Amino acid sequence: MGWRRRAQVLGMSDKGPWGGGGDSGNGPGGGGDDGPRNPWSLPPAGKRSRIGGSTSLDEFLKRARSGGPGGGPSFPANAGRLWLAAVAALVLVWIGFTSFHSIGPQERGVVTMFGKYTSTLNPGIQFTLPAPIMRVQVEDVQNTRTESFPEGSQPNLMLTGDQNIVDLAYSVRWNIKSPEDYVFEIKNPKETVRAVAESAMRAAVAGKNLTQAIGSGRGEIEAEVQTRMQALLDEYQSGVRVLGISIQKAAAPVEVDDAFKAVTAAQQEAQSNLNRSRAYAQQVIARAQGDATEFDKIYEQYRLSPDVTRRRLYYETMEQVLNRADKTIVQPGVQAYLPLPEVRRQQQATPEPQAPPTPQAQPTGATR
After folding, report:
1. What's the rounded Cα separation, in Å, for the pair 368 and 366?
2. Which of 277, 257, 245 is nearest to 210 (CA)?
3. Cα gap 257→243, rounded to integer Å
4. Using one digit for the tens of pLDDT, what is the confidence trace for 280-292?
């Protein structure tokens, strides 16, 4: 009814919303005396005194304000209900967006009430009081984060225990162990992890010599750095779990890299020679142990029957000595044994006679 009343007021006005019209010839947008006039154009001659006066728009607004009963403003009868419904809808949307939380399987939600920690939400659809009473910060606790050292291509020089310099490139893998500590106990988790990792690595390298740092001691350094980092982060109550340390490069500085490569090659050759010597020593020891075992067995047999064992040992020894020697056995009252080995050697040294050529057939009637 209020909007209909305003339309009637506008229809009863004999003027447009921009005031009365002027002459049709007074500039663009100017109609006749009864038509609307452009509010930005100058009034026609003789009517300039109306510039400071009220226009039809002012009169329309005054009538609209006084259109209600008692001269008050006129509004629709159900305006209060509409406003109440709109506010209720906004409240419901606000509660739905800030009270229900979807937590993924790999996530946890840290709940705070007026900024104070209250609980941690597990995976699933969870409900809390709406914001700003309660707020939820969701953290991915299974995501593995990796920090690489150094950042970029610049060298990462460290001092070893024997006063040498080594260039190290390594990475640190970590994730979130306690989301509430991760959120509240440390301000910059990434920077904290990097600072702790660099401190632990320098401390571990300082306890090793150069050979261990660039060679066989890498595994020990990685394990020591992980232990140091976890102990320090637990002391900070950071809620961070160190998953592992990996050394990608451990070498001498570029300026002395060639000399260190030669030293490394010599060390590898020495290690190879040492391994071969150990293998030969093991073979000799195994052979000696076998001989000793055999001697023990022979001794047992000798202890049981000394004469038989003594004779058998004599025969075995003579067989080994005379195995490849030329020999002639002579017994009393028996004809001398034919030295067959000597005869065999003479036969091998004598060339075999060649067969005479086959005579060719002569033609019939030939005479000698």
Report:
1. 7
2. 257
3. 32
4. 999 999 999 999 9
Average pLDDT rounded to a whole number, residues 78-98: 85
C-alpha distance across the termini of the chain, in Å: 169
Q: For tokens 């260039």, what's the residue?
A: 167
Neighbours of 326 (CB within 10 A): 10
CA distances, 301 to each of 288, 289, 298, 304 (Å)? 20, 19, 5, 5
What three-state secondary structure class fits 217? coil
| pLDDT in the model for residue 364 | 47
Rounded-to-integer distance, Cα 214 and Cα 267, Å: 12
Whether pLDDT at 36 is above 70: no
Amino acid at 247: I
Q: pTM above 0.70?
A: no
Question: How many residues appear in the chain?
Answer: 368
Identify the H or E element spanning 57.
Answer: helix 56-65
Determine the Cα–Cα distance for residues 214 and 205; give it in Å rounded to an integer.
10
Q: How many CB atoms are located within 10 Å of the residue 74 CB?
A: 17
**Whole-angstrom distance, CA of residue 153 vs CA of residue 129:** 50
Is the model's pLDDT at 339 over the cut of 50?
yes
Pairing type for strands 134-140 and 124-127 reads: unpaired
Supply the mean pLDDT for the chain.
Answer: 79
